[in-house]
Amino acid sequence: MKFSPLVRASVLAISAMTLAACSSTSDDASGTSAATTSEAQQGQGVETGAADRILTPAEQRAQEREEKRQRYADLRQERVIYFDFDNASIRGEFAEILAAHADYLVRNPSMTVVIEGHTDERGTPEYNIALGERRAKSVVDYLQSLGVSAGQMTMVSYGEEKPVVRQSNERAWAQNRRAVLVY
After folding, report:
1. Staple 120 to which of 28, 55, 56, 176, CB 3.0 to 4.6 Å?
2. Beta strands per DSSP E along the chain
3. For the whole model, what pTM was predicted?
4. Sheet-wide strand order for 153-159
5. What is the mean pLDDT of residues 41-61?
């Protein structure tokens, strides 16, 4: 004997609810019966709520934009870019952080940022000022390549004058070789 899909779904849903009502009250049992009910309803094409509906392409794009905006907001909390010894090249690990800052600056053209270049204590003061300037310039150039207006950025080099860590070891030097974005 054949039953219509609606009758079959109703019988299945009533059976699942009956089982759920008779089950124990522990968290594991209620979670299992709820999952069974949901699976049974989905299997029969019964809509279970907004969380289960399929998003339209426009809604998916909007959701992706919102997720990207939130990820970039989190990344913008990081404002320090570190450099290798005697180097002013942007390391790949900082690309997304700089992209987040660039996105923010492009979306907020009245916002300005100061990029501070820093070095560790090794080298002459003159050399370190020049290296700090190259590091700041490297960040400025990178942000400009992502669409940030040159008028939104200024740079300054402190060389070795403002260390974060005042020790003379590799760990301290690595923390002092940096560019800082100051809004």
Report:
1. 176
2. 80-82, 113-118, 153-159, 178-182
3. 0.69
4. 80-82, 178-182, 113-118, 153-159
5. 68
Which of the following CATH numbers is that of domain 65-182: 3.40.50.620, 3.30.1330.60, 2.40.50.140, 2.40.110.10? 3.30.1330.60
> What single DSSP character describes residue 14?
H
Q: Which candidate, 128, 183, 123, 120, places its Cα nearest to that of 157?
A: 128
Query: Lowest mean pLDDT: which of 2-16, 82-96, 165-179?
Result: 2-16
3-state DSSP percent of the chain in helix, strand and coil, to 5: 55, 10, 30
Tell me phi and psi for residue 118, to 5 degrees: -130, 155
In angstroms, the CA 108 to CA 179 distance is: 21
Domain positions in the chain: 5-53, 65-182
Cα–chain center distance at 88 = 25
User: What pLDDT, on a 0 to 100 scale, did the predictor assign at position 52?
Assistant: 73
Distance CA 14, CA 174 (A): 65
Q: What are phi and psi of 81, to 5 degrees?
A: -115, 125
